[in-house]
Amino acid sequence: MDLLRRTALAAIAALLALPLPAGAQGEAKRDAMQHFFVSTLGDYPAELADARKAGKQAVFAMYMWDECPYCERMKRDVLSLPEVQKYYRERFLPLMVDTRGSVPITDFNGRQTTEKAFSTDQGVKVTPTLVFYDLSGRPLYRHVGEIRDAGTMIRLGEFVSSGAYKTQKFADYKAR
Q1: How open is the CA angle 122-124-129, to the nearest 5 degrees?
Q2: Taking the alpha carbons of 72, 40, 88, 26 in that order, is the dihedral positive or negative?
Q3: What is the Cα–Cα distance from 145 to 153, expressed in whole angstroms?
Q4: In angstroms, how far is the first alpha carbon of the chain from the final one?
Q5: pLDDT tens-digit profile of 19-53?
Q6: 23 vs 9, 13, 74, 139, CA distance in Å?
Q7: Domains (range + CATH), the chain
Q8: Using an 8 Å Cβ cutoff, are 112 and 103 in contact?
Q9: For residue 116, how many C-alpha atoms fall within 13 Å in the half-sphere facing its CB?
Q10: How far apart are CA 115 and CA 6, in angstroms?
Q11: What is the Cα–Cα distance from 38 to 93, expressed in whole angstroms?
């Protein structure tokens, strides 16, 4: 019986040592479409003006489409986390752009277009593509591909807000 008890205690101790799944450590996950991205009427010059008034550092745009599995996983596993939502909402104006969307928008230069045409104009070829823009609508930094964890997503925001993107690659910044 002692061997069985010791084995059970060792198994319990091993389980307790495992890290908690994402979102289980703090607050519960929240819908990214509601709590990460801001609602917009598609008037990007007005959005820039609002971001300046609110003291934001930049605009963060995630180019995606509904059936992109990487985008969906990123929204579900990273952008749904309260710590990521808080970090980005405090510093950036987080926008979602549908690369296949026909919704009319006014781009940063005041031109009438659609989300799809805007995505093409911005050179977006794959999703997700994450682009930070300054508060005049000029691209600062582009990250192509999915980010799979909150720490990396926050580090990306720090990389841009600190200005480190001007002198180094994100991989080098993230590694230090």
Answers
A1: 115
A2: negative
A3: 12
A4: 50
A5: 444 444 556 898 778 889 888 889 999 999 999 99
A6: 27, 22, 13, 31
A7: 31-175 (3.40.30.10)
A8: no
A9: 5
A10: 61
A11: 7
